[in-house]
Each structure stands twice: as structure tokens, then as C-alpha cells.
Amino acid sequence: MHEWALAESVIKTVETKPELKNKKIKILLGELQDIDEEIFRFAMDELLKQRESQIKYSIVVDEAVFKCNECGREFFMSEITKKSKAQRENIHFIPEMVKAFVKCPVCDSIDFDIVKGRGVMISYD
Fold first, then answer.
1. Rounded CA separation 107/90 (Å)
2. Could you write out the DSSP letters of every residue in 50-119?
3. How far apart are alpha carbons 60 and 71 in whole angstroms?
4. Is 60 left (phi over 0), alpha (psi -120 to 50) or beta?
5. The domain 3-124 is classified under which CATH number: 3.50.50.60, 3.30.2320.50, 3.40.50.740, 2.60.40.1180?
6. Is 1 helix (H, G, I), strand (E, B) or coil?
């Protein structure tokens, strides 16, 4: 359950950035990471309580977007056939593995770029 480790990393990062003090942060969870949002939120809340931290946050799942280098079409995870548990787990730990399991839904090319939807990012208004 690396959701706990990710939550702790987010909190530590925010605590070291003076410009984030007293700001509500937005945590973007890349869809490719397949992070369990419920576990991540629980981990954030528990760790914030333990630290007596006043960090306020929201969570947004950043939809995975791909762009085919053959036909130029952008496509999404929702357009791709369901993956097995093993495939999802591979992609979860190494997002670039998506290239081993996915192809463009229009031209069937395996030559595509990941435009967005991976990693964990912190932003604020």
C-alpha cells in the first residue's frame, strides 16, 4: 500500500514549502498510477492528525490522455479495453508499461505518447 508513502511524501513536501503555508493545495493523482483514492485520502487525514497539521487539500484524478504518433488522435483510458489485474498492477508501478498493453483505438498503432495523467502533483491557487 504505497498510498501511505505517497501521502507522507505529499505532506512533507508541502511542509517544506513556505509558499504553501495557509494555502489549500490540490493533489492531482494521475489515472495511470491507479492510486486508491479512498486509501490515499484516509492516509492523508490520519497523517495530518498525527502531525497536528493544518494543511487543507482536495484530490483530483488527472485523466490519462494519450496521443497517437501515427494518426494524431488523442485517446483516453476509458476507450481502452479493460486490462487484467496483472496489467493494471504493472502500469500502476511503472506507468510507461502502458505502452506494452495499449494501442490506438483508431489505427491500432502502438506508437503513442502519454500526454497527461501520470504521477502525483501538488498545485495551489
1. 24
2. HHT---EEEEEEE--EEEETTT--EEEGGGSPPPPHHHHHHHHH-GGGHHHH---TTT--S-EEEEE--S
3. 30
4. beta
5. 3.30.2320.50
6. coil
Q: pLDDT tens-digit profile of 81-103?
A: 677 778 877 877 788 888 888 89
Query: What integer pLDDT is reported at residue 77 of this predicted model?
Result: 86
Predicted local confidence at residue 27, as pLDDT: 98
Average pLDDT over residues 54-83: 91
Residue in the block written with cell 492523508: 44
Average pLDDT over residues 5-14: 95
> CB burial class (10 A; 0-12, 13-18, 19+) of residue 78?
exposed
